[in-house]
Amino acid sequence: MPHDLLPPFDPISAGWKRMDAEGYPALIGPFFAKREGEGWRYGFLAEPRHRNAGGVVHGGMLMSFADDVLGITVWTAAGRKPCTTVQLNMQFIAPVRVGDFVEGRAEVLRTTRSILFVRGMLTVGDRTVAHADGVWKILGAN
């Protein structure tokens, strides 16, 4: 069935919980979360406002979402201490279309006293659409 003829995905009825957001994430969201074992999955429904001039979801939207997914994973691993992105690398693998539900997962690879290294992946169904890795600093840590 063509993508535009499928019924719209409803994250809430699929067991996802809407995340509270302020500032920039509230402007580009909503984002959703779902427990997965000991960790979490995060998601957003691609809307027409997320498109670029080519008609697919803008890479900046995917990067913003990845920054949130990796950032909340780091925040949790750092004991909920304030953290900030120092470096974020992104590899765009496949396009995302309006109506797609994008899921993000992340894992912390290494933690020092003040720095965390993390990587993540964005998927649509079983299709990988992007990889991300980055470095976060725990604010106030030396």
Note down, in words, how this protein is organized.
The protein has 142 residues and is of the alpha+beta class. 18% of the residues lie in helices and 40% in strands. It has a 7-stranded antiparallel β-sheet, with helices on one face. Strand 5 and strand 6 form a beta hairpin. The longest helix is centred in the middle third of the chain and has 19 residues. It is globular, with a radius of gyration of 15 Å. 27% of the residues are buried. The model has no long low-confidence stretch (mean pLDDT 93).
Multimer state: single chain
Task: Determine the fraction of residues in helical runs and give it as a percent range.
Answer: 10-25%
How much strand? 35-45%
- Along the chain, the helix and strand elements come as EHEEHEEEE
Strand order of the largest sheet: 1-2-3-5-6-7-4
By secondary-structure content and strand pairing, the structural class works out as alpha+beta
Largest sheet: 7 strands, antiparallel
* Count of alpha and pi helical runs: 2
Distance from N terminus to C terminus (CA atoms, Å) equals: 55 Å
Number of strands: 7
Principal-axes shape call = globular
**Rg to the nearest angstrom?**
15 Å
How is this fold's topology laid out?
Layout (H helix, E strand, L loop, with lengths): L16 E2 L4 H6 L3 E5 L2 E7 L13 H19 L5 E10 L8 E11 L3 E10 L2 E12 L4
Antiparallel strand pairs: 1-2, 2-3, 3-5, 4-7, 5-6, 6-7
What would a concise description of this structure say?
With 142 residues, the chain is α+β, with helices and mostly antiparallel strands. It has two helices and seven strands.
